Amino acid sequence: MIDDVERALVVMAHPDDIDFSCAGTVATWTDAGIEVAYLLVTDGDAGGFDDDVPREEMGPLRRAEQTAAAKCVGVTDVRFLGYPDGRVEPTLDLRRDIARVIRQVRPDRVVISSPERNYERIYAGHPDHRAVGSAAWDAVYPDARNPYAFPELRAEGLEAWTAREIWVMGGPSLGEYVDVTDVFDRKLAALRSHVSQVSHHEDLEGMLRAWMGANAARGGLPEGRLAEAFQIVPAV
């Protein structure tokens, strides 16, 4: 992996996707002085478990939850595209909208969900996750770096930008394990900010420790450590 990172962008489909998948890693980056921005493609308006919450209130609620969660791990730049939850497709419009943010943020590293199904973990293969992963991959290459792709972006004053590395979450080829044991409490706090999504979990901490402990074991880390898993793809 590259070691001179100044900025990173995390692109995911729904509020709470980042916090389940990589908030611990984000905390280690912000602690190291890396500027991290979040881009959520939807507001998560199809989420939740409470019929008493009107649907029109769910999107704004989840935006607020994600904004609070981000602060737990040192992120204040949180952006939303407002695509409809559950109906995301990897369209040219979505590629352009993600490329726009890449050109605005100018990240060295982009974190995305996997465009592929993971047949060992059904939740990672949510169709919105795969659609956003595919569009974000294409936005990194070739869209954001090609000055002649989406000329309207250049007309907005956004010159081409080349991100140098992609970190893929939830896919079938994970091989890089980040030890996040020392920031686990902040990851847990971030997830607990998503009250509308996690309040039904009787033992959220136990579930995370089991899952992340298994990641650490696969990564060869000592017993008792906790890890998040990625596939790292050079983008230059």
Automatic annotation (TrEMBL):
Q: What keywords sit in the KW lines?
A: Zinc
Q: Does the keyword Zinc apply?
A: yes
Q: What protein does this entry describe?
A: PIG-L family deacetylase
Q: Which organism is it from?
A: Actinoallomurus vinaceus
